Amino acid sequence: MVYSGKLTLSSYGGRVTYHEITQQVRDMVGKSSIKDGICVVASPHTTCSIIFEEFSYDQNFYGYEYLQVDLNNLLEKFIPRCTTEGQYFHPGPKHIQVGLEDFKGKISPEAYTMLNTDAHLKSTLLGTSETFIIENGELQLGLVGYIYFIDWDQIRPRDRTCHIKIIGE
């Protein structure tokens, strides 16, 4: 059997957005009626990641869990936020041209929205999907494991899609 689901998640803009989606994924596993199999949680966006991490009960004033603060700080040291053209090779002039002309109205409304190279690199490093085992109808996440959808792109607020595919019997 195969079960497919989607979540629509809103990003803040102006800062990295984390969504803790563990319960939504568990609910979909329950709806699927699959007892043994796998559950793939994936982002179709090249600037988003799916991670599996411990829930950190402490939060800062922005609502980031402390592990998220640590991850943001670590990645910012290696991959600083893209704030101006030429900071990274990407986006180059051809990429901007394609974005503005060929994808007009579909992806990037203005050239500055393509200044998200840092988000692409962070997504590449952390990955865009996670796969989980289902046994006896339950996600095998251990005692402290949680699933997070992260939008690294800080350019603007927007809705993002998270795909859940459950395969098994």
From TrEMBL:
Transmembrane portions of the chain: none
| InterPro entries on file | UPF0047_YjbQ-like, YjbQ-like_sf
Task: Name the domain of life.
Answer: Bacteria
Protein family: Belongs to the UPF0047 family.
The protein in question is named: YjbQ family protein
